[in-house]
Predict the 3D structure of the following.
Amino acid sequence: MRHFASINRTAFRAFKGRVFSITLTYPKEWPEDPEACKNHLKSLYKRIKRRFGEFSGFWRMGIQQRGAWHFHVLLFVPSSFGSVRELRRFVASSWYEVCGEVSEGHLLAGTRVEQVNTWKKATSYAERYVAKQEEFPEGLKTGRIWGVWNEELLPIRWKTVKVSLKDAYRIRRIYR
């Protein structure tokens, strides 16, 4: 959330960037190894980059109630990136192929791609999915469950401000 909060929204709008939220799920059969799933995500990232060009984004790995892994992704792209419809088709077919073309139903229902039209919606998506607390099975080693792609392409502006201890506690309470 700290990385996300550091994005300079005004600079991003001036750059005429767009934001897409993507949800990726697995079919009935899914890899149990989290690293295999992250490799699937890495393959999808490379395909999108080859097809549409450079972009940045945040990803988060989660686990569904049925035990299957899934991903939430926020893409920050230039205006020349392509249409929502084109990205939907491409992500659906690419994720289907990356996951091993297990079932036709997965091609139709394994992904969700939406354009996020307001910064408030992007922030809401990040708070709801990217920063969500996950309950992983006991003893499972997941490694890193989130990441940032091409952070250098994001218009980030870090600011450090000194505050009193009293204000620091207030701010921490608000964030919680």
Remarks:
- The helical segments are 2-5, 9-14, 34-52, 84-98, 104-109, 119-130, 165-175.
- The longest strand covers residues 69-77.
- Residues 34-52 form the longest helix (19 residues).
